[in-house]
TrEMBL record:
Residues 40-176 form the Nudix hydrolase domain. Keywords: Hydrolase. CDD domains: NUDIX_ADPRase_Nudt5_UGPPase_Nudt14. Gene3D superfamilies: Nucleoside Triphosphate Pyrophosphohydrolase. Coiled coil: none annotated. Its cofactor is Mg(2+). One of its GO terms (molecular function) is hydrolase activity. It comes from the Bacteria. This is NUDIX hydrolase. The lineage of its organism: Bacteria, Bacillati, Bacillota, Bacilli, Bacillales. Belongs to the Nudix hydrolase family.
Length: 181
């Protein structure tokens, strides 16, 4: 992999926000030329595939401003500084769905958009959902609605592009692969 390495000459910090940081790097390419790279720095994120006792998947519907529309997604959220992904997973599950679990299984992790961002996403699954006695407050600026769908219903939502994000489509494909085994 070293043969493709780009060496950073200079980094310009453009923006330091609540969720992301934007930097522009000047780099030396493997052939000696120079280029600019726009980089989005992100602390990482976690998503959970929550399965109810009656084999339904718990989703949240929420408005996504960059898309100017609502999407149906598996519960997810960003890692807090120093927080282990499994802790984030339980916190987000509780805040977004009103369920908790003590049995999480790590399914995979992946980089969401490695061409410009360093965000890594961890995907967990649980089939041991327990309703919380008391609701946990979520983010003040987050409004979600719960949906419980069968796998077939979720696949239909994907065809209709009501489910249209990578992590949720991955979850559907993963669950579909379990059925075929």
């Amino acid at each position: 992999m070293k043969k493709f390495e780009e060496k950073t000459i200079r980094t310009e910090h453009i923006y330091d926000g609540k969720v992301v940081k934007l930097e522009v790097d000047d780099v030396t390419l493997p052939d000696g030329q120079t280029a600019k790279r726009e980089l989005l720095k992100h602390p990482g994120a976690v998503a959970v595939i929550p399965i109810t006792k009656d084999k339904k998947i718990v989703f949240v519907e929420q408005y996504r401003k960059p898309l100017e529309k609502s999407l149906v997604e598996i519960p997810a959220g960003k890692l807090e500084p120093g927080e282990r992904p499994e802790i984030t997973a339980v916190r987000e599950l509780e805040e977004e769905t009103g369920y908790t679990t003590s049995d999480l299984k790590l399914i995979t992790s992946f980089y969401t958009s490695p061409g410009f961002a360093d965000e890594i996403m961890y995907i967990y699954m649980t089939e041991d959902l327990k309703p919380l006695k008391d609701a946990v407050a979520g983010d003040d600026d987050e409004f979600v609605e719960l949906l419980e769908l069968t796998l077939d219903e979720a696949k239909q939502y994907a065809r209709e592009q009501r489910i249209h994000d990578a992590k949720t489509n991955y979850a559907i494909l993963y669950l579909e692969s379990l059925e075929r085994m």
